UniProtKB/TrEMBL annotation:
EC primary class: transferase
Ranges for domain Carbohydrate kinase FGGY N-terminal: 5-234
GO molecular function, one term: kinase activity
Any single Pfam family the record assigns to this protein: FGGY_N
Gene Ontology biological process terms from the UniProt entry: carbohydrate metabolic process
Gene: yoaC
Keywords: Kinase, Transferase
UniProt protein name: Sugar kinase YoaC
Gene3D superfamilies, alphabetized: 3.30.420.40
Length: 471
């Protein structure tokens, strides 16, 4: 029998169940679209029903295990999008999930603005409804039914562990995204609990990546804690201190790996935990790849990504400028507006691919803006950055990023599934298996592209409209 690892990857738009082997290869994978619901009183308040997700997850898991019955599963693990949580009631039931797209915290954020400096100093993240503290607080105050009592919560990745093992815990890398965790000291913060009026008894035990949460099934297969998808991607590409990693996925984090805590008085970055002695300084272009996927689905549904890439390559200019990224870190802003600016009059050559071309350029420009901002906080002298995530499967996008930031983009093995690969590496270390490092990488060289550089300057002009105006 061959040996493998069962990995759950619960993203924002889609979730996946995968089997990986000891070399990091993904042997089999099944995916499905995540279903969300909206509160009737607030269109920003999104949620999911854990039982619905769990049924789909377990079904896909059974089908995958059946397809690859020749594999003996050595360990089970999970990673997920950050900032989402699942709440547990007095019966021990996971009864509601509050994902990262849930912004109900805006209902109560004004009350806590006076504590914003302290929140950033301790949590490494500026006060924002994206993070779990405000979601949880607002849900408890404004949405919780009288017959329910919240006795605990966990991240979405460790929620799967809870369902499979009965043990409630949270990964360090997920705890740091709650705004209740001291990211420098690696512990729940009493000061943050006081600020957000949170009871200590509902806080889950914190597990380091690689620790065993519990055991699954009669076979007693260990469920090994991994954690947040961005941190797992950093592990997956084998990044070292001083490296900068660009993750091009649903969102686009740009992170620098450091071995000392950092506090930025201007609050231009986030400070994330990986493990003790290892942190990430992060800027983030916000929603990027999801914009590309959404436009393709709604306007180019019958075209493959390869075909779209070919059509974009045929374009010798930009007919319009797109701005759909949702984050502007220098201003600590989440952008709610975006759009497409076209030249007037409308060219007879203008078509849907021109918009797709501009959306791809928007991703490259958003990443470039936030990479340059990261350099102001933490200098980066290496001639390369490390790229990972599905976005780098596009040669055009990779080339545009390399050219705009004027750095080589190094794509390690399994770069497109870096989070899954990171989980597999952690499982191997826990089980004392040798971890194979592959020398083979793909390198995207920067090039001089005057048209793209001119586009970036025009994009910045358009972007400032959305940075400064709300409507």
């Amino acid at each position: 029998m061959k040996e493998g690892y069962l990995v759950f990857d619960l993203g924002t738009g889609n979730s996946r169940v995968a089997i990986g082997d000891e070399t990091g290869n993904i042997i089999g994978i099944r995916s499905f679209e995540n279903i969300y619901h909206q509160e009737s009183r607030n269109p920003e308040a999104k949620y999911f029903i854990p039982k619905e997700w769990l049924q789909k997850i377990l079904l896909e898991m059974k089908l995958l295990l059946s397809d690859f019955s020749q594999y003996t599963i050595r360990a089970v693990t999970a990673t997920s999008a950050r900032e989402g949580i699942v709440l547990v009631d007095q019966r021990g039931s996971a009864f509601i999930g509050l994902p990262n797209i849930d912004k109900r915290g805006n209902e109560r954020i004004k009350k806590y603005q006076q504590y914003s400096k302290d929140v950033y100093r301790l949590s490494g993240h500026w006060l924002d409804p994206l993070f779990s503290a405000l979601k949880l607080l607002t849900y408890k105050e404004n949405y919780l039914s009288k017959e329910k009592t919240i006795i605990g919560f966990t991240s979405i990745s460790e929620w799967i562990g809870y369902e499979l093992t009965g043990k409630l815990g949270i990964a360090e890398s997920q705890a740091c995204e709650t705004q209740l965790y001291d990211t420098k000291e690696f512990k729940w913060s009493e000061e943050l609990m006081d600020i957000f009026e949170m009871e200590e008894k509902i806080l889950p035990d914190v597990y380091a990546a690689g620790e065993v949460l519990g055991y699954v099934g009669e076979e007693k297969i260990p469920f090994i804690v991994c954690g947040a998808d961005t941190q797992m991607a950093v592990e997956g590409v084998g990044a070292k201190a001083g490296d900068v990693i660009i993750v091009s996925g649903t969102t686009s984090p740009i992170v620098a790996v450091v071995e000392e805590p950092l506090y930025d008085e201007d609050e231009r970055c986030w400070f994330d935990c990986v493990k003790k002695g290892r942190w990430l300084i992060e800027t983030n272009a916000g929603t990027t790849g999801l914009n590309y996927q959404t436009y393709r689905k709604n306007f180019l549904g019958n075209k493959s990504y390869k075909e779209i890439e070919h059509k974009i390559a045929e374009k010798n200019n930009f007919q319009c400028i797109a701005s759909f990224g949702t984050k502007f870190f220098p201003g600590k802003k989440s952008l709610k507006q975006g759009g497409v600016f076209s030249y007037a009059p409308l060219s007879v050559e203008f078509d849907r691919i021109d918009v797709m071309n501009a959306i791809m350029a928007d991703i490259a420009c958003g990443i470039t803006l936030h990479y340059r901002e990261l350099q102001k906080i933490k200098s980066h002298d290496k001639k390369y950055v490390i790229g990972c995530g599905g976005g780098f499967q596009s040669q055009t996008l990779g080339k545009r990023i390399a050219s705009l930031i004027n750095k080589e983009v190094v794509l390690p093995p399994h770069y497109e599934q870096a989070s899954l690969n990171g989980c597999i590496k952690i499982c191997q270390k826990t089980l004392k298996k040798s971890v194979e490092d592959h020398d083979h990488v793909r390198i995207i060289e920067p090039g001089e592209d005057i048209l793209l550089e001119e586009y970036y300057e025009k994009w910045r002009t358009v972007r400032k409209i959305y940075e400064e105006v709300e409507f």
